[in-house]
Amino acid sequence: MHSTAIKESKGDRVFLIANYIYLTIALIIVAYPLIYIMSASISNPQYVGSGEMWLFPKDITFEGYKRVFQEEKIWSGYLNTIIYTVLGTALSLAITLPAAYAMSRKDFFGRNFFMGMFMVTMFFSGGLIPSYLLVKDLNMVNTIWAIIVPGAASIYNIIVTRTFFMSTIPRELEEAAQIDGASTTRLFFTVIIPLSMPIIAVMALFYGVGQWNSYFSALIYLNDETKYPLQMILRQILVLQQMSAETGSIVEASTAEALSDKAEIAALVKYAVIIIATLPIIAIYPFLQRYFVQGVMIGSVKG
Amino acid sequence: MQSTPYPTQNASQPESETQLPKTTGRQWRRIARNWELYVFIAPAFFYFLIFAYGPMYGIQIAFRNYVPTLGFLGSKWVGFDHFTRFFDSYYFWDLIWNTLSISFYELAIGFPIPIILALAFNEIKTGFFKKLVQTVTYAPHFISVVVMAGMIITFLSPSNGILIHMLEWVGINPPDFLTDPRWFKTMYVLSGVWQGAGWGTIIYLAALSGVDPGLHEAAIIDGASRFQRLRHINIPTIIPTMTILLILNVGSMLNIGFEKVLLLQNPLNMESSNIIATFVYKSGLVDAQYSFSTAVGLFNSVVNCVLLITINQIVRRTSQNSLW
């Protein structure tokens, strides 16, 4: 970006070095916990617990993963999450894409009305309890619908997609299609969709990651454990058990010794479970980072 | 529109004009020709109607004693009873204080850090190092809130958390972060910064990429240092983005990421972790006080709206940038 033809002054050099140091510190702060968890998940829990393992794995063991895979709850949670994510994302796209396309058309009478109606929901909502009562009245409690339907569309994503359509689909294409007598539906499926793969990928990722990571709707709408998504199982393992184990060891200090072995195994399982639950996203993220960033950037143009 | 119209159009125009005003006739034709677009928007329309406006209709139970068997309209109207009960309760000021202090704390720390980080990214050339730092700092954004809470609990666990060990190594006697109310807010805010700061830079980098390179070249020729260019070119460039984000942040002041608070909350740190949103969840869904907690939630929404409108007005008076 910046011209390098002119030699940098001493002050600039100092500034740049300080800048690199700052970024390196930021890098270390963010990367360290991630590396630690990976190392901890395959180290001997004794060294992890005592703090002797603090960066690289020590006395490598896969006991944690073994135990995680033996846990039936994790398998069912994983399967449920995959189902919720795939169906939820499909539903979200089915609502978002056509709506965004309709609102991108300048000749669509009423687009301002729909836009206004959707935008209001960004700033004002009915709140937790009325939403819950609605889902209950629709008889969706304890079904998959309660997980995928109430949060299916986001106005933010619709606006981003609309901005993409408006800035990349040439008006002439639509006019040409109309002159040829092609219907809007045909145009949408045979021309617009193939041209819009980048934004569809971004939207699928945004919705998909959101669904994969969500636990709250499962917490309030599901009461059958076999339907729990992975995040609810994680909550049981990572948050609830830990809390009881900690307070337990504080209260009964005398039995802490006997408990420590069990606690160490439990800790090992925790690290392994974090890796397994986050793996799909970690695995795809470096390849798709560009698309995620693009999605945010398109949003900020209009934002 | 000045081109000579087709004869057929010319002939039909006067006819429609006599029956309907010109624009209405055109509009109807436009609507009829684009009927498919209404089919396209129908799913979104019904989605928002049912799942966004439906709950708004349900807000009325804040003013009633809602009994599920009687329905919304059948339940007794009690006016502002639930609100006054909330305002008079002994925990009202605690809830307000916790909610506002966490918000301000988060804003004070969490708002400037992505800006500084984005400006720093912008100074260095595209290359391996920049890509590495960006990829790594963006990554925590994708960690789920449950895993995040699990990480905090594991890292700060008093018996074997690694951060506790580290504090001991440098000779500090670590407090009990997880249960000490004095540490709850810091724990919440700093973990949020760790998770969100990198991702938060993207929007500023987008603004910075729009800077005219000619400005920098001219400044270099005039002998401006890097810092001077940062101060007088880059920062003014991102001020509109900063303003908009600031307005949005203030407008959602009372909407703390309550899913994380809920996960980190325990009876021992309740004193500083009890916020309006978790209170609504507990009194509404755990204790089934539907009407009362709807009233509390409505109070929260209204305060948010007022804050958003107020800050937008203030910003609009003092600068050119505002949401509307």
What does this structure look like?
The complex is a heterodimer of chains A (303) and B (324). Chain A contains 14 helices and no strands. Chain A is mainly alpha-helical. Chain A has two domains: 56 residues; 229 residues, MetI-like fold. In chain A, helix 4 packs antiparallel against helix 11, helix 8 packs parallel to helix 14 and helix 11 packs antiparallel against helix 14. Chain A is globular and about 75 Å long. About 6% of the residues of chain A have low confidence. Chain B has three domains: 27 residues, no CATH class; 46 residues, no CATH class; 229 residues, MetI-like (MetI-like fold, Orthogonal Bundle). With 324 residues, chain B is mainly α. In chain B, 73% of the residues lie in helices and 1% in strands. Chain B is globular and about 75 Å long. The longest helix of chain B is centred in the C-terminal third of the chain and has 29 residues. The chains are: A mainly alpha (303), B mainly alpha (324). Chains A and B meet through helix 1, helix 2, helix 4, helix 5 and helix 6 of A and helix 2, helix 3, helix 7, helix 8 and helix 9 of B.
From the structure above, extract its key features:
A: 303 residues; mainly alpha; MetI-like fold; 2 domains; 14 helices; 77% helix; B: 324 residues; disordered N terminus; transmembrane (chain A); MetI-like_sf (chain A); transport (chain A)
Topology summary:
The complex is a heterodimer of chains A (303) and B (324).
Chain A (H helix, E strand, L loop, with lengths): L9 H32 L3 H6 L12 H8 L1 H33 L6 H13 L4 H10 L6 H5 L6 H14 L2 H9 L4 H12 L1 H17 L2 H6 L8 H22 L4 H47 L1
Chain B lengths: L6 H13 L2 H12 L1 H24 L5 E2 L5 H4 L1 E2 L3 H8 L3 H19 L1 H12 L4 H11 L6 H11 L6 H8 L11 H28 L4 H9 L4 H26 L6 H7 L5 H4 L2 H11 L3 H29 L6
Antiparallel strand pairs in B: 1-2
Helix pairs in contact in B: 5-17, 6-11, 7-11, 8-11, 9-14, 11-13, 13-17, 16-17
